[in-house]
Amino acid sequence: MTGMYVIMVSTTAGTGAVSLTRRLILKVLSQPWVSSSMWEKCKAVLMVLLTVGIVAPSGASCVGWASGQASTSNPEPFITDRVVTVRIVMSEEDWTACQLNAQAEQYVRADFWSDGELVPDVAVRPKGNSSLRSAISSGSPRFSLKVDFNLFNTARTFRGLKKLNFNNGFSDPTLIRETLVYELFDQMGVPTPRTSFVDLWINDTHLGVYTQVEQIDKTFLARHFTRDDGDLYKPETLAAPLNWTEEDVRRQLTILEAAGQDDADDSLDINIGGGKLRDILEALQPEESAADEAAASPGVPDMAQRGIPQPVIPREGLPRQPLPGQDALQQPPRDGQQQPDVQQRDYIEAVGLKTNESSADHSALFRFLDVLNNEPDSTFPAEIEKVLDVDNVLRFLAVSTITVHLDNYLGMGHNYYLYEVDGRFAIIPWDLNMAFGTFNCSIDREGLVNFFIDEPTCGPIDERPLVQRLLSHQPYLDTYHRYMEELLEGSFSVETMNVRIDELVDLIHPYVEADELKFFSTGDFERAITEDMRGAMLTPDRLPGDMPQGQAPQEQVPQGKAPPIVLPLSPENLACLRKQISLSTLQELRTRPPTTQELQRIRSCLTRDELSAFLQNLRGQTELQQQPVDPRQGPAALGLKTFIAERVTSVRQQLDGERPSAGDGSGNGGSTTMFNRQDGLPDNALPREQPTKGVQR
Questions:
Q1: Measured distance CA(426)–CA(406) in Å, rounded
Q2: How high is the mean pLDDT of the chain?
Q3: What is the per-residue DSSP string for 566-607?
Q4: pTM (2 decimals)?
């Protein structure tokens, strides 16, 4: 009927009516109830319109011929009082390629709809680390996504934004942890990305409830800082702890040069406005010839020319992909052929400069790191204030600590940005879906609830100088405590948090029920608000398998206590695993598939059957919405309201001196050893431990 209406109006009315009709059809086609058959009819209608010369092709999909930019009638891109429908429309070939080659994280062309408004000709790709591997291993198309609005056109934005992230909540049965903690950071005055909930579709695939998250880029920086032309860094792995200086960089480069390593060709990584040249070239693949346009949607890339197969997706759904590194299980490296643990990287690459790449000048960063690591205690306060927004960092630490967010600087060391303006740095939070102890550094439940507020690190506090040096200065510690008090009396009080949790649950509950691709059941979603979702958690002093081979004894576990996982491993197996893989990595494997290198290490200690049993036992009882390829998925998610209530009590007791707030300098008993050797250098290239700086606590 829609097609008939288009043809009738288009052939009897003037240009104004045609424009009105086109807008009407685009509005209708953006609705979630539009089926795949309706999309096919849309293509047929489009060909009729092309024949009579009413519209011109310019997009990669049925609706791609709409020109212009999203309406600014509602300039707010983050609508928080309702769940907005977002629809991404791309060619079926590109959608198939995205699913079968998700790990490549390659952009494809698409049209973007949000709340019925269109931005045509955008770039979309899968994104993520653990979240992406988790979706791939389960055979699910429910990837986290990044949408780049100006990759193909530097003038194009969506309500002022150049990029958006859509996170799939893979580790959080409640789907609201990320939003809750971003709100806490914002309320504490930390520059924070905005979020909202959306109901996401790609073509006629209903992906379900996602968290829409603002990109940290120049648009974000312009809203929060006096200037947007400073250096923005996103440190990872080797560089993330900030326990290094320019001298370490020089020594590292000397070692790499001596080893005869050539610098990688980075000529394609230059930013030309809309994005990196490499990304744009990858997305702008050869398109179909004019002779083929009549038989396909305008602008659809030729998959054969791109070297991407054109598989047919079975009716049952997406075929499951091999796990990352699965070939390592089947074909281990031949004798004498060893693969490095990680790609060799230096500090400068790992520190992740995101702006001013073509004119990089790290002098401000080196100055900050020198003060942080080397400045004498007597002059440290005066000098650190010149290179760091100390108040910003203390607020950041207060929220991170009270929410036990350990997938950031306090634990893994990453998932934050540093931004410099006129030589002075501020910290920006990122990737918060594993807060409230979901990422636990191998710390048991009691340790997470009573996580030290004055020694808030997984491992030794002197491995995190941004924490150790600031909290060693009494005036800074007092200010930090004051922010803790503000949180307890305000936004993190049990009453306030419970009300906000209920609001968010009520907001998304109908959409969760309708979400057939979510990683957990609706029952999990409801129970996880108050109940721990895992029957067992690793303890910091016990590796899974710390028992002789055979049947494990059945222990009576008090309510609220989690027993350690017991696996049928021999003492020889156990000794081998202790040498090959860290506790923190084992804990991570409960929420993500292993990498190729991790699988090789584990497999070197176990037979195939032992490996299968080992991985099987890493997962506790969680009612997954989709059964994964193997049993490694599932969160160590504590009951949200329950954990918050217990955490509030513990922090209050620590502030009042009724409970210890710090230990002996070793942190909270967690493991961060996976970062000991991330540089790929010989063991004697750099010291394993940095000298202790600052006041000892």
A1: 19
A2: 74
A3: -----HHHHHHHHHHS-HHHHHHTTTSPPPHHHHHHHHTTS-
A4: 0.69
